[in-house]
Amino acid sequence: MLPLLHGLLAAILAPAILALASAQGAAQAPRRDFSCVGAERLEDDVFAIPFHSGNAQVTDAARSGLAAAARLIKAEPDRDVCVLGHSDRAVS
């Protein structure tokens, strides 16, 4: 079995998270100035969204993390959200 890629929230999932958070038709707040500088030091509310190497298919394990993140975003609409991701795949 291929090893799972681990990370904070995978950057490619940002649209999915935002779609889940706004699925109930909630009014969108205007964009605020926000920077992810220093986000690597954040420890609260970090979600890992695993993927199999070479595959962007959302797994059941990823869905539970996405659902938890979406619930938090819906519960705190004024909170800034920073989506970060990485891959541990070796480049040859």
Short description:
26% of the residues lie in helices and 4% in strands. With 92 residues, the protein is mainly alpha-helical. It has one domain.
CA radius of gyration is: 14 Å
Total number of domains = 1
Order of helices and strands: EHEH
Helix share of residues? Answer: 25-40%
The quaternary structure here is single chain
Percentage of residues in DSSP E strands: under 5%
Total beta-strand segments: 2
Record the strand order, biggest sheet: 1-2
- Briefly note the structural class of the backbone: mainly alpha
| Helix count from the secondary structure assignment | 2
Q: Could you name the ranges where pLDDT drops below 50 across 5 or more consecutive residues?
A: 1-11
For the report, how would you describe the main beta sheet?
2 strands, antiparallel
- Overall pLDDT confidence: 67
Determine the N-to-C terminus distance: 21 Å
Shape: globular
Describe this structure in words.
The protein has 92 residues and is mainly alpha-helical. The protein has helices at residues 14-21, 60-75, and strands spanning 4-5, 51-52. A two-stranded antiparallel ribbon has the order 1-2. The radius of gyration is 14 Å and the shape is globular. The chain starts with a strand and ends in a 17-residue tail after the last helix. Residues 1-11 have low confidence and may be disordered.
Characteristic key phrases:
92 residues; two-stranded antiparallel ribbon
List the helices and strands and how they pair.
Blueprint: E1 4-5, H1 14-21, E2 51-52, H2 60-75
Antiparallel strand pairs: 1-2
Helix pairs in contact: 1-2
